[in-house]
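Worked Example 4.2. Read the sequence first, then its structure tokens.
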Amino acid sequence: MFYCLPLLLGLLGLFWQAYKGDRGIRQFWVVFFLFFMTGLAIVLYLNQTPQQPRERDYAYAGSFYAFAIWIGLGVAAIADWLGRLLKKQPVAVAVASVIGILVPLQMVSQTWDDHDRSDRYACRDFGLNYLNTLPDDGKPIIFTNGDNDTFPLWYNQETEGNRTDARVCNLSYLQTDWYTDQMLRPAYDSPALPITWPRLCYVDNGKHTFYPIRPEDGKHTFYPIRPEDKSILEEIKKKDPTVDPYELSYVLDHFVARPEGGYFPTDSLVLTVDKEAVRRSGMMIPGDSIPDKMQISLKKAYERQRGLYRVDIMIYEMLARTNWKRPMYMSVTLGPNNYAGLENFLVLEGLAYRITPFNFGTMRTVDADKMYDNMMKRFAFGNVKAKGIYLDETVMRMCQTHRRMLCLLAKSLLDKGETEKARNVLRKCKEELPAENIPYEYDDEDIAYLWYQVGEKKEAERVCKDVLKYDFQYFAYLNSLSPERQRTYVRTAYYLFRGLISNLQVLNMAESKDMKHYEAEYQKLLDTPVGTTAANLYMEQMQDYGE
């Protein structure tokens, strides 16, 4: 509740300056053009697209400074007018000063709790959790992508001196030559990344656009996949049977790493596996066998975009050269298009997936033992459990990421029959990420069932009720929207309904005394427009799955 006081003071100062004679109007135009050129003009010039990842108000900081000048002049205007009215300048100045102090005090009283970061160490601890997912040996590499999974890691290394043996490699930057140059240099206690390309083969002289306008621009940015050229590889194989032209390192050396720009003459590659190196690496080895070759398919990349960007190829280059001696990881917060087609070879060990030579056929593979050791013994949670602590949207998302990882761990332990360990994980989750500070949402539908599986019916009931309360409130909001707006939330409504059904089932299994109340709320929901649409979608999905 600011009561528009800063705005009113600024407008007051603006008009007071503008009508302060010739000198005032000259000063007004100076401030006005500072305000206009660093505010409205920048809005027009940048023409920012909608759905930005965060508020971009910092781009207009200059206009804020200009308006702050008018706010200060607003206080001077009050002092001037009061001086004329009271005929006592000292009294007028005192009153204006009090008013000038009361306005920021009012603002602070309303916004302090929304900006108070005291006793909150989530940024530091969560960043360290990424690094502590990595093994202590082998000078590991972790691939990140966004600000929130990169800068906290850099802070831990640069300022706190933590895990300086690890190398953080941001994939958003790896598309550029200047960052590749940096990765080819040692940093802290980490040696250079295993990239063997000459600089002439990856530099683009500043032409880093994803969609180059001219063919000669960005020649080392995008590499086409041409499956029709497999005949070239077959000819090579015929001439020299000792050479496997489909080997990743061979394709990179002879077809991709070229000064004039390269390409892939195949949509499938292989990587010969050094079995002894894999055994020494400490990674999880499913079963007793290690494959002779790692089969890498480029078919999805070919179907999606007919080629690969340099960032993916640099990952392949490192994979081909490191020979499993240097552990390579991918952050859990990478987008689905950032795994370079290796998603089926990944094993979750905490907040990062380890790249392995094993094709698991899914990204849900978990090294439960290693992940348990990491999350239960090596992770810290930034004091987000403190009563009354302020958690902004970004920190809340990272808390929910940790909660999801803990739930995945608990599920994996239950699949192995280790119920007691799974119970410990769920208790850790409840203790460190309490619902009072990180409320349950519809995508927390699995937590209640996990509590039920470990024999904690009361906890299962508690979580169910929290999630159901969220679901019903969300449905009430959706039903309050216009039919046009409701249609834009169809997918959200489906997931809400799916979670609602799941939690009603768990609530029933937990033998809750409030079951009838929630069943009645469910029946009411079915009579609403959004509830009907979501129920129909859910039934269609169940029929498709044969359930």
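Now turn to a second chain, presented in exactly the same format:
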Amino acid sequence: MIFSARLNFNTAERRVLLLASDKATLFLGDGARLARSYVFANSEAGIAAFGAYLQTAPVVPLYVMVDVVEEEYRQDTIPFTRGADRAAVLTRRYARLFRGTPYCLALRQGRARDGRRDERVLLTAVIKPELIAPWVAELNVHKVPLVGIYSLPGLSAALLPRLKVRAANVLLISVQQASGLRQTFFRDGQLKISRLAQMPRLGSVPYAAHLMAELAKLRRYLNSLGLMSRDSPLAVYILSHGALLTELATQCRDTDGEHYFLVDNADLGVQLRLPEVVASPYADAVFAQLLLDATPPESYAQRAETTYYRLYRAKLGLMAASGLLLLGSAGWSALRFFDAVGLKQQALEVAQMADFYNERYALAHQGLPRTAVEPRDIETAVTIASELTARKESPFSLLKLIGATLLERPAVVIDKLEWASDDSEALTARPAVSSRADASAQFTSAVLRAHLAPFAGDYRAAISAIDALAAQLRAAPSVHAADVMEYPLDLRSGSSMTGTASSGGPANATFVIKITAETTRGQANN
């Protein structure tokens, strides 16, 4: 029948268009399952009606499946190559074998066992492209995402595992409402040849006998081509349903060369989860659903014809990425929100604790006597006192060192001894002092004023004794410097020596030595 534009297609999610020589069947899906179908005539009026449907239909992917007589098959071998080289080789073969059609395809079928081990391929083509081109052009006009253009015989290979076929020679026969009797031969699971025969209207003639006659013709053709393995019988699988299946059961008798397997379309429909309406002698819906479930990687479609499908997939990818980004952002925001709620709760708890302790402090403060000094100032004074105590210095160790040294020199008489802590003048005057000290060291300086007694006027001996005393003090481990500040005589180069010859009292040999020693913090407390 011809499609009516008044029909509602808005619930379709996946679609398959089955093209035959004189009609096209559109299968519409409900989700991933095909639910119903509509038929268009292969004419200008039918294509126009198809365009009217596309204008109001949702933009969802569409698969095109071809089942026509004008499909040829050629067994061939090509050099084993990959990528662009293989495409170039196949393009030359297509131009030589199938002129004037862009719908060509090469199915891999292994490699030769000897020689260069060339690649064995089955070259197929729809030699009448005008059967496909008007429908594809209508799809492009309405920007329909075309997934691909697939061959029904090529798709039949995906049905063999569902039928649990293990035979080497397999002939799959199905009755197609759109096209006729489809007979496809497989050798070791690989498609070798397929034949489409016209069939009379179901019920007009004994259908089973007519089908068996067509089978005999194909059997003779296979024998002439030598495609069958002689070691194995021919396994014939016939897809049908109802009365025709019962009629075939009376016609099909196993022989040594042929084994028959009758398959109910209803059972295949259960496997494919198709609705009950497809339980009929015709297998069109079975192959349409099989195309959705097991889409072959090879397709007749040209790259320009699938542009809108690539854009459709890119759109879905962007939408999925946007959804994931939105969900991720929402999740992140939710986590941050809960963290903020937790922090807010903690802040409230801390504020409550602060109020509690302030109240306790205020109550405790009310019971204390008033003081002239604020507690905060008392705390500062205590801190300063503790720091001063920690840094308290005493000249005890330095005086002890000087005393022990002078015990060994009874000729030295102390006139005066002065001391000071942190003598910055000594540190800057002698760089060696600052380089030897560490960060925790304190320095104490002492100025020793003394004279030698008895002194008989021998200044040379007096100066030597004073230098020896300074050297002994300087040798102590804690002493950083012991310098003679004044000698009994002024030994500077710019000074002049004067004196008086008389018989008065003895001369005085006075001198001054400055000692700088290290005192570790807290040492005075020991």
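Notes for the reader: Residues 15 and 28 are 5 Å apart (CA to CA). The first strand starts at residue 15 and ends at 19.
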